[in-house]
Amino acid sequence: MAKKTILPFGPQHPVLPEPIQLQLVMEDEIVVEAIPAIGYVHRGLEKLTETKAIAENIFVVERICGICSFMHALCYCQGIESLMNITVPDRSRFLRVIWGELHRLHSHHLWLGLLADAFGFESLFMQCWRNREMVMDIMEMTAGSRVIISTNALGGVRRDIDSDQQKFILNSLNKLQEELDNIKRVFSDDYTVNKRLVDVAVISKEDAHELGAVGPVMRASGLSFDYRTTGYAAYNELDFEPIVEQSGDCYARMMVRLRECYQSIDIIRQAFAKLPEGPIASPVKGFPSGEIATRVEQPRGEVLYYIKANGTNHLDRLRVRTPTFANIPALLKMVKGLTLADIPIAILSIDPCISCTER
Amino acid sequence: MLDNEKIIELQDLKKETLLLKNQGYRYITMSCVDLGDSFDLIYHFDKAYEIYNMRFSVAKGTIVPSLSDVYFCAMLTENELKDLFGLEFSGLVLDCGGNLLITDEVGAAPMTKQYVVKAKESE
Fold this sequence. Notes:
Chain A is α+β, with helices and mostly antiparallel strands. Chain A has helices at residues 45-49, 57-62, 69-83, 90-118, 122-143, 163-189, 191-197, 205-210, 215-219, 250-273, 323-334, 343-349, 354-358, and strands at 4-9, 21-27, 30-37, 152-153, 156-157, 289-298, 301-310, 315-321. Chain A contains 13 helices and eight strands. Chain B has a single domain (5-106), classed as Beta Polymerase, domain 2, CATH 3.30.460.
């Protein structure tokens, strides 16, 4: 029997954009167990929300994570609006879908680039991030900032998208789709990419369900679960199906995200085609009271907000369960049996967001 | 009170959770609310996009049975609540000893209502 060695992987590693450590129990080159160690970027944001006014909390939750800041604010606003029985205008529901899908697009492009970088394909990495810039330009034009766009508000949205901006966005998306076709060929067919991703870090459908995996990790293992299909915002008026792959390996997780880029472009086009005229926000008076557990589908998967309000301008409790937090148990399972060389790819394949995880 | 919520007793937690698991529910997470002398613990599950919540209250200092032997993924949430609320769980399959998210210098249970953030005295 080989001697066991504990090898700390992270918190600083070239493949990790944010700090997380896995203590890998190794037998020779094979991982037999992994123990997570997080806490390097815990900021106590849930506690902070108890001291801020209810409307100010939108800015707090947006800072849980830059990459999916819009979806955090959306989930929070939808929860408060439900507690206060506020109906948001139709136009704002569609605008929320458009900015939400733009966030999914830039998040997936960021991840695709990081993945290419992780297996040493530098030109592919740069192509993905160059394409991502088109989405960032759209955000800057429509919201005034590139990452934390702060367009959500209680009762609707803060900004509108006019017809000239719509034309610019649709033209940019046409170019982005052409570029996606180019990188898709490489990601799906390239020999080296296949060797690094196919049959690596497999997680079965049953394990993905039992371990509470969400988002592309779950859907890449054959589970058809996408919370957008419940129809929040304006998703009930748009035509799409969850993107599902079956093999449960790194390749499947990559393909789900790649196909979701096309899906997001299609959803944005549909949303613009159906975008109704009218106001973008409803008036909000008073303070919420009661409890709610509300969810939305972020780029990395389902996020849950539990909100307890007491009729004042401060919440009793805001609890956030982010998708990466839910995917860590699946990660611990999928790294077992891998060689050390595959660990960076496996960790990256869940698209870890540690700022989200630790809040 | 949440939609689709069942109030249970502490001693029924394992039994109720096993029933849910056998019915195909996915564990989402658990939430903890500080009520002063006690904690409200709410467990969230999902099946076919429907959320199901289980709730019970425990006096502070009560040891709660861990669900990590039923749903392994509950281990992370339980370690988180141990760090932030000072909750104790019996039978945790992977116990981070109160240091999953915070270090010892933070002090005990920073998410509880009585925890006050103090500035360090200048030297």
